[in-house]
Amino acid sequence: MAKAQIGVYGLGTMGSALALNMAEKGFEVAVTNRETDWIAGFVEEAGALGGKLHAHDTLEDFIANLAAPRVILFMIPSGAPMDAMIDAVVPLLAAGDTIIDGGNADFHLTRRRSAALAGQDIHFVGMGVSGGEKGARHGPSMMVGGTEHSWQQLKPILRAIAAQYEGEPCVAHLGPDGAGHFVKTVHNGIEYADMQMIAEIYSLLRNGAAWAPAEIGQLFAEWNKGPLRSYLVEITADILQYHDPETGHPMVDVIKDAAGQKGTGRWTVIEAQKMGQAASMIEAAVGARAWSSEKETRQTAQEKLGGARGAIEADGATLADAMMAARILGYAQGFRILAAASAEYDWQLDFARIAEIWRAGCIIRSALLDDIASAFRGELLHGELILSPSFTETLGRTLPALRAVVGAAVAQGHAVPALSSALQWADTMRQGFGSANIIQAQRDYFGHHGFERLGQAGKHHGPWWDQG
User: Fold this and answer.
1) Residue 322: pLDDT above 70?
2) For residue 267, which of 178, 193, 211, 328 sits 20 to 30 Å off, Cα-Cα?
3) CB 244 within 8 A of CB 250
């Protein structure tokens, strides 16, 4: 029997889907799982693909069945379980073998593991996988961090199973050690912001303009035919037009008003803050999810503080422009965080390529990513996405709509934390002269004991009237 070209350990939702994807593309795949009673059932349910799946009950047999140099994909919980697995598997490996962590992992852990294993010539790959179960089964977007040696081992398999965009696989080797996991983390941060903005626009239409869910869904379906086309807009349109078969009510009304989170959005904000970068839109989205989980507190606050929200005028074109402006700003914040990390960790990330592998298979895929890739391949003032000619033109046209929507929402008591954060970030960025001189003066005053030395300490850049 031919030895397997890759091993997949962990037959949960994502691991089993990836294993079937690989088998379908013609690869011999060794499979195993901590709960060994899952394995036979998985192979049996694979049907015709079962012939490509090599099932093993022990870790030793699993590894012995892999062609050298070995490639093993672990789809298990990150953190302590991954460390325990490394301890168990490394004694069974040889120089040149590659271990892949395909979960949502803290990139700091990936960097540590990569460095620790390098001395034994064992290659550790942190691979971000986006697209959920369906993507994993039929074509995910994958963000790979690791050595060139490991990439050459993985490249034929990953390019075969990846989502395709106009014939180009949505997978790339982005850099060493934690680069892949960090890019996936920021991908999820952008996802948080985009989901929150969509939710806020839904809320304005539902609670401010009294539109029915199906009517809002039809608007999103129309948006999905144009510049706002994206996976999240598409599924929102479907969700809002779906009715619960048991109650007959719109499904969105049956679902509890409390959103969960797995932590990657929060990680994005934490790392951005560490590097001195703004992640205000992502932070607003993370905060909104956290606050949403306190349903009883919110209901009490509604009683005590008043929960009335005034009517707003609903104009689809204005809301579409507001969404476009906010989405551009959300991506721009995300890529600024990626740029900071690339410099901090010497990853030399290719931002255009990142945008390209996000065009299919992943959750934040959207029509806008073509424009983002083109912008990064052109000349960018200060390296800023929002300063590319195409985006300055688009923002010049759409920011007034974002301002109008946020203004109306605030005036009538509607919470729009992500949309308002987008507007405030844009306004801060576009003001060549703002209010930071007051903050600096305060800092100088504290540090130099009052006014007597403030003049000498605080004139860092000359008076405000000379600052353009």
Assistant:
1) yes
2) 328
3) yes
Share of the chain above pLDDT 90, in %: 81
pLDDT band at 255 (very low <50, low <70, confident <90, very high): confident
Residue 318 near residue 384 (C-beta atoms within 8 A): no
CA distance 10 to 18: 10
274 is catalytic: no
DSSP class of residue 3 equals P
Q: Cα–Cα distance between 195 and 285 in angstroms, integer?
A: 8
Band (303; pLDDT cuts 50, 70, 90): confident
Query: In angstroms, rounded to a whole number, what is the distance separating the alpha carbons of residues 171 and 174?
Result: 9
The whole-angstrom distance between residue 72's C-alpha and the CA centroid of its chain comes to: 25
Task: Check residues 308 and 416 and name the one with the higher pLDDT.
Answer: 416
The verdict on whether 200 is a catalytic residue reads no
φ/ψ of 73, rounded to 5, equals -100, 120
28, 191, 271, 283: the active-site residue: 191
Question: Exposure pattern of 307-327 as b/e (b: 16+ CB <10 Å)?
Answer: eeeeebebeeebbbbbbbbbb
Cα separation, 16 vs 134, whole angstroms: 11
How would you label 252-280 residue by residue, b for 16+ Cβ within 10 Å and e otherwise?
beeeeeebebeebbbbbbebbeeeebbbb
SS3 261: coil
Mean of all residue pLDDT scores within the chain: 92
Paired sense of beta strands 71-74 and 168-169, if any? unpaired
* pTM as predicted: 0.92
Nearest one of 167, 122, 114, 166 to 144, comparing CA atoms: 114
- HEC string of 17-30 equals HHHHHHHHCCCCEE
